[in-house]
Amino acid sequence: MNRHPFTASIRTRITLWHLAVLMVTLAIYIFFIQSFLRYQLASELKINLIEEAEEVVTLFLKRGTDSHFVWRGHQESVQQSYWIAASHIDGILIYRNFTQTDFVLPPVPLAAAKEPRSFHTLALPDGNSLLMLQELRQIDGVDLVIRVGRTTNHISQELWHLLMIQGLFFPLILLFAWVGGYFIAGRVLLPLQKIIARIHCITANQLHERLPIDNANDELGHLSFTVNELLEKLERSFSQMRQFTGDASHELRTPLAAMLSVGETVLRAPVSAREYQDTIASMLEEVDKMNHLVGDLLTLARADGDTIHPVFEKLDLGQVVKEETARLEILADDKGQYLTVTIHQSCSVCLDRAIFRQAFANILHNAIHYAPTQTTIAVVVDASPKDCWVEIIDAGPGIAVEHQRRIFDRFYRVDPDRSRNTGGSGLGLSIAQWAIAIHGGKISLTSAVGRGSSFRIVLPISLADTPCPASFSSTMSKG
Ligand code: ADP
User: Fold this and answer.
1) From residue 313, how far is each of 320, 349, 391 by CA, in Å?
2) Are 89 and 145 in contact (CB under 8 A)?
């Protein structure tokens, strides 16, 4: 694997960042130390120059007989490292202790001439720098210019020595920081390695396992907590998937077993044409059930995969309900039931007609299916300022409270055997719930055993000037 620094391990990256920060900090530190020392040494030099100038004035400059000032000291009486020059204000030189002919001290700057004391940095011909003090002194009423200078070589040298020492320790500090940083990063990331190793061991069959949380307040604790939450969701999804696959296989096996059994029976001995016809009719009935079941399974699979994209249009709920009820009227008639539609107040809603039909037809179909003959199934449409609803009320057996909670679960049936015999797979209400949720609505149930059931589909009203949205945010959990 190509180990580019930015694709290197977190440990290496932390170490490199740590080193980079340390290097910048050290560089800034060295810069400040050097600047401070330079300032300190320059200040000391200035004090020395002032003292030296004082000495020159008090010890060596004396007034001669011709009222001119003369130098009374020896060459050795002044420190050799100092450059000393004394002159009258008009430039007539009294004394200077340096002989370089190629170096002439520049004339006193006009501005500086007004100042009694000023410092100047001059470049010497040999490349060195000279810090020069210039003092205007009046001695016995005569204006004199005293100049005392010294090269700044010793400052540069001291700074250079210090830099050398710092430079010598720099690689050592970096080496120490590298080793220390790498070690610390390793220690910090050790729990992460453990988490990774643990996650590696978790397979689809061990989704019940959880990561240990040593400290819930640190970042690794948060990470473990998040991974645990993810595992919990995965476990739930896997178990729902297993349950769903198991239930679906079971439901498919029942009609297949029935077909197999009737097929084998007629093949065992020759039977009349009429019996063959009955067998094929019975087999087709099973195929029809399977067809319905596969259709329902497909709908739920597509709903889970979010591959159904509804197209909403503004429709009058009362009108849609009337039309859909009319389609199922024949079933109620066949059972000798009375199907009534009452519209107290209709309203405009955003519907994908085909999807809404699945919900409405499943609930109305159940009502017709479970309610006895000679009873009335009432379909009522009404509205509040915000919502519009349709209620399907039957006088069937009702649903006990303990079943009401689970009635919308996939494959859930109150009486599995009875329901299966009559073709029910337990998917109708879960599909209805999904279909209404996709419209931004919900279904509620009111039921009492022996007194019937009432399913209410509530949908948001669509305002006249508001267009239908592309989708309603569905909060329905996949059951
Ligand atoms: P099924 O295909 O079995 O009808 P559903 O999901 O439509 O599946 O309904 C789930 C279960 O709810 C049914 O098996 C039935 O026991 C019960 N149920 C649904 N609607 C009614 C109703 N109107 N009256 C009584 N029980 C009902």
Assistant:
1) 12, 8, 22
2) yes
pLDDT digits (tens, 9 = 90+) for 149-206: 888 988 999 999 999 998 888 889 989 999 999 999 898 888 888 888 888 888 877 8
Q: How far is CA 397 from CA 149, 347, 355, 371, in A?
A: 117, 31, 28, 7
- Gap from CA of 426 to ligand 1 centroid (Å): 7
Q: What is the pLDDT of residues 284-317, one digit of tens each?
A: 988 998 898 899 999 988 888 888 899 999 999 9
Per-residue model confidence (pLDDT) at position 127: 81
CATH of the domain at 87: 3.30.450
Report the number of distinct structural domains present in the chain. Answer: 4
**For residue 212, how many other CB atoms are within 10 A of its CB?**
11
- Atom 20 of ligand 1: nearest residue by CA position: 366
- Residue 20 reports pLDDT greater than 80: yes
Domain boundary among 136, 151, 166: 151
Pocket of ligand 1 (CB under 6 A): 362, 366-367, 370, 394, 396-397, 399, 407, 412-415, 419, 424-429, 453
Q: Which of 406, 413, 421 to mutate to test the pocket of ligand 1 (most atoms within 8 A of CB)?
A: 413
User: Closest ligand 1 atom to the C-alpha of 408?
Assistant: 6
5 part of a folded domain: yes
Q: Hey, CA dihedral for 167, 171, 172, 178, is it positive or negative?
A: positive
> Distance between CA atoms of 377 and 150, rounded to whole angstroms?
115
Ligand 1 centroid–CA 224 distance in Å is: 42
Q: Average the pLDDT over 388-395 and give the result.
A: 97
Ligand 1, atom 4, lies closest to the CA of 424
